[in-house]
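Appendix B. Raw example, untouched.
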Amino acid sequence: MVYHVHLISVGKKAETAFNVINSEIRMNKIYLLNNDNEEYVAVENEIREVYSKFPLDRILTAKINPFDYDNVFKTVLDLFALESEYHPEGVIFHINFTMGTRIAVAAMSSAAYSINADLYYIQEACYSPTGKDELILIPIENIEELSELKSRKHVLKTFMKFSDREPKTSSDLMGELKSAGSLSYHTTYLSKAGLIKRFGGVKNGSWVLTEKGEQVMKRL
């Protein structure tokens, strides 16, 4: 199962670290990106206190210099390399840059593109059209399979049948395809790309989205 890691840039407000709790974004571990500023350390402790009540694996601090682009960029890449080693089955990073300095935000954004991470920030109520704090997700389209899939319109059409996230039989997927051979080509391509997988036998089985397929679907 894919492991989900959140990087949260610590700033002057703790509240922007909590909106993700009620979202659909999964969370297994948190790294708090912070420095030794006493004000920010106090905010970090507040964040830790809230998240200590949730079943997370760990909440760790990653020291950064928020005014040093290279330092922040390298820190994110190093954390990703570390977590990828711990979780060879796959890891996805989600980066909350709401409270970052401009330099830190630029570095985190660049790093996110390099590691296929999702960026998100909290649009505060005073700036939101709904009058409430909103989590704004910024997916980074750097999944190799995503670009390739977009160039294969017929295969993409088959893949989009999974947009309801429900299992699909071969009959469900046949649609306008003219032959079983065409369907076999599509499902073979999608399964080799790691986007769908089969459950059950060849005749009575069904196809479902994988974790990777879910990430690609969200970005289409």
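End of appendix B.
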